[in-house]
Design brief:
Layout: E1 3-6, E2 20-21, H1 23-26, H2 29-34, E3 43-44, E4 60-66, H3 77-85, E5 89-93, H4 100-106, H5 113-136, E6 146-156, H6 158-165, E7 172-178, H7 185-189, E8 204-209, H8 217-227, E9 232-237, H9 253-256, H10 263-267, H11 279-297, E10 320-325
Parallel strand pairs: 4-5, 4-6, 6-7, 7-8, 8-9
Antiparallel strand pairs: 1-5, 2-3, 9-10
Helix pairs in contact: 3-11, 5-6
Amino acid sequence: MKTEIWYPTTEEFRNADRYAYDPKADGTDDLREKYADIDLGIFPCDGVYDAPVLRNHGKFPLLIFSHGAFGIRYQSVYHTIHMASHGYIVAAPDHQYNTLYEIMVRGWSGTELPASAMARPRDIEFLINVFTERNADPDDELYNLIDLDNIAVTGHSFGGLTAYLALFDKRVKAIVPMAPEGTMIDLLSSAFSGPKVYEIDTPTLMMGGRLDRTLRYKESMADIFEQQGPPKWFLTVNRGGHYTFTDMCRMNLEELQERWGDAKDALKDGCDPENNWDYREAQKAINLYTAAFLNTFIRHSPGSAQWLTPEAGAEFGDEIEFVAVPE
């Protein structure tokens, strides 16, 4: 399972050249051939490729990010890099047969979604097991660097559903579902002997865009938040769409919209400069609250809880709403 890993590195790399993810270079030969005539766009990030892992600073919590249906492991690099900078080892897999490459080569098809929904929580379980083994291997770069008592899962859309379903694994101590497909939680959780929505008491930071056109904000997010027990928090981006929570708006969507099924929706679902809040500005709020939440419940930083309040996001004005139900 192809997995990207981000982690804290040493001070000497602070001013090193930053890396950018190129979907065409990263993709398969048939993808490169099909899209040889256009620029797909890139995903720049504030990270340095293959830098050494920071040692002598204790252990780092493990954070696993799950991409959306037909997304890609680096689709939300603004989020994964930010959390690595806060002292997390962050891992994001490509969920097999449910990545951006499938939709770009074959076009949109929903036939794989049921199987992917069932496979994804096992992907999370598998990765936790892999990192447990790596943490115990003296020859591994991550040897004795992972705090396996503090593991969180974040995810977007179908990946947000995955974060909820991953709660069947008791090693997961907190989740951040971003624009999740919440209506499927109860239907699928029984297959993993996981909790129903009303039974969930794991710390959860829900996020959603009020203008989401891919999923229904009320049914998939707001209603699920109401059903779930505390401790829970909810960040709403009032002019946010489905893709506000990703870096997918960086892709060349105008060129792609006639070639694959979802791009036309993406243009108006978080990437629209007229109707949506600039996704780069929205992501500042997303990162603020995600870091505050995970630092509170996963890093156990007592000072971080003060940022889990509506007042902490005052600089964003009416663009966001934040609800806290800690108990």
